[in-house]
Write the structure tokens for this entry.
Amino acid sequence: MVTNVFQSWSCSRFLLLCAALAAPAAAQPAPEALDVLPVQGNVYMIAGAGGNIAVQIGESGVLVVDTGLAGRSDAVIAAIRKLSNKPLQYIVNTHFHPDHTGGNAAIRQAGTTITGANVTGNLTDAHDGAAILAHENVLNRMSAPTGKVSPTPPEAWPTDTYVSGEKEVFFNEEPVQIIYQKAAHTDGDSIVFFRHSDVIATGDIFVTTSFPFIDVDHGGSIQGELDALNHLLDMAIPKHEEEGGTYLIPGHGRICDEADLLEYRDMVTIVRDRVQDAIKRGLTLDQVKEAGLTKDYDARYDTKTGIGSASTFLEGVYKSLSKKK
Amino acid sequence: MSNVNRCGIAAAALLLVGTPAFAQFSMSFAPAAALDLSGNWSPVLDEDVPERIPGPELVNYAGLPITDGARLWAESWDASRLTLPEHQCQVHVAPYIYRGPLNLRIWVEKDPQSQRVIAIKQYISTYEQNRTIWMDDRPHPSPNAAHTWMGFSTGKWQGNILTVYTTHIKQGWVRRDGLPESDQATLVEHFIRHDNHLTHVSIVTDPVYLTEPLIKTQDFQLNLQEGQNWLYPCEYVEEVSGRPQGEVPNYLPGKNPFLHEYADQYHLPLDAALGGAKTMYPEYQQRLKVLMAAPAKK
């Protein structure tokens, strides 16, 4: 069954952001200014539009990873256009959550898919919009079977999905690997590796602003989350003394390298170990939440409410470990 | 503590009176005829030698203003974590690295046209770290920019004292027995030269793991011999074969087998060994007397 994440996120970081945007004009704070940073090689990061957006530019055009919240699309498109006026050809979704896919429809519309039918003409006349690449489960989560109400409009859906372990694109003289991470943050996570630039967009498998959100209701699991973090550690290679080299664009937060990812992986593993021990000792979920098992990380990562809070993280770990195998 | 250290701490204290560290730093100072710090500097290791060379004992957190969260972090820390490949080449962060054993080289980078100082540069032999202290009033990067071991530093001369403000530091430690310093920490430093002696005062503010700023000093002696900066290359090796992928050595809460080792060795109450701001101040001696008079409990 495909549930509607836009309803199930009632207490989420996403809706907190939306609430701010929906407040009466007099009380409405100005939207967070977008922060555009060069990462490495062909790749930039746009922060402040919801989830982080990776932008790869070059002679062939523009590829973006994720599209942020729907309400920020105009600003995102303007930011992309400051980086490049070449055709926006590809959007990759790391997962289906609306702070990463909310801008799909608008940003797709600002782009162009180059196909056999239009390559001989003027590319600016090709109005198909950009291609949206994602794992098949992203499409499943964003759409609905025939006759059912879809949680998102068809214009926002992925146009090109993959079901095996990986999809490859060669773009802007760079191999780009879109790699499936099974049952991690959700059941449709992809990480995107820009092999020449040596940059990885991680989606919400790795964030620096909160505890991870294990979306168990949508196929996420603590073991998948850890498998994905360990995979990212294997892929990242530091340049000197555990610094630089491969850079990572997390789903939320600042640009990172392997050392930052390492501390995050350690934290997730240690909390998993503690919850596993608590389950062995027969503690209930409420007891686990009261046991202070994340006390050493709360001041750094606990958002107190909703997604990213210690409570939600512990619940995700507990439910995930308690599932019958 | 040496007289020089007392002098350094007194100078730092004077600079800090009445205003927060960064507010103090951000005040405008008239350009001064700055001292030249250039040269090779060798550490003078007579301060805190047991901590700096052999390293601190496990579960010795005394005298540090740590939070409860930092204490749990450290109690969960198994030294075997440093055998994980990705941890093996981990570097001391800027607030800690001057406690290392190797030399420090300082030089000045000037604009070739105006001869104005753009930056004061440092090569720290411990872990081969290069540090740039920007002197040209440039702003600190966006909060979304990457962090580094040395962070991003800007400096000002306050009279003859070079004061440096650093942000964007990676997660590291405040003591090498697992006590963490978060990636939210900021650093104010004062480099104070007295002839051929250099005192370095560091003031770390960490909203995550410290309840109040941590002030430390380190000293260096000018070294006139050439070739005094060593190399410190690091390549990881497999130190524990057969370890399952993804395993992170750690102690479950309350299960650290070394919890009492340091306290027992020095006949201290565990309360003292577990640190916290209270253990920094002279008033704690009164509490210590009470604790030591009470029957020992484990």
